[in-house]
Amino acid sequence: MQKTSQQVLDCLNKIFQEEMSGVIRYLHYSFMIMGHNRIPIQKWFREQAQESMNHAILIGEKITSYGGHPNLEASPIPETQSHKIDKILEESMQFESKALNLYKELVPLASDDIALEELARQMVREETEHLEEVEKMMRQSK
């Protein structure tokens, strides 16, 4: 395996922290959903938490494969105290945008490590799809 730059490990650790915050964030959102649409929305947020955990596991394994040490903290998670679905979805978009940008940052850092580049590109696709889904959820029916 090639020597991995500190820039790659730093980026992977930022991604790891962001994905760990996603686990906490989406679980919190799932608890705070109330009203007649609770069941499908709660289920969706729990799925997002599970996906963030899966991403964190993948990235954590990649960090240790390259000889690094995953951080023991999540990215800061602001608590807005607003649990209206539209506000939560706006916060989700901000989170997904940040994660997307970190994965995009990783793509050129991968250099000639094709496996890492493909991983980063796959995550760019997944995060883009998440953003598109949240944007659709926020649209009002005509």
Task: Please describe what this structure looks like.
With 142 residues, this protein is mainly alpha-helical. It has one domain: Ferritin (Up-down Bundle), CATH 1.20.1260. The chain is built from four helices and no strands.
Short descriptors:
142 residues, mainly alpha, Ferritin, 0% strand
What would you call the quaternary organization?
A: single chain
CATH superfamily: Ferritin, core subunit, four-helix bundle
Which structural class fits the helix and strand makeup?
mainly alpha
Mean pLDDT: 92
Total tally of structural domains? 1
What is the fold's blueprint, element by element?
Layout: H1 6-32, H2 38-65, H3 85-109, H4 114-138
Helix pairs in contact: 1-2, 1-3, 3-4
In short:
This protein has 142 residues and is mainly alpha-helical.
